[in-house]
Specification:
Helix 1 runs antiparallel to helix 2. This protein has 61 residues and is an all-alpha fold. Helix content is 72%, strand content 0%.
């Protein structure tokens, strides 16, 4: 699937992805549940894939 984004849409999507990444990373360090940690790691991996697709540098994440 291909999605064409305007610059402002791409910027907003990047902002939302980075916020979600930060929240899940923070939550990952706060939880003790192994199953929840796995879910968070899986979510972070998907967010990382999306960031790569819209060209957000890894050092920003």
């Amino acid at each position: 699937m291909t999605i064409t984004l305007t610059d402002s849409q791409r910027e907003l999507l990047a902002e939302l992805l980075l916020k979600a990444h930060r929240e899940r990373t923070h939550e990952l360090h706060r939880t003790d549940s192994l199953s929840y940690k796995k879910l968070l790691r899986d979510n972070i991996a998907v967010i990382d894939e999306l960031c790569e697709q819209i060209s957000i540098p890894e050092e920003v994440r």
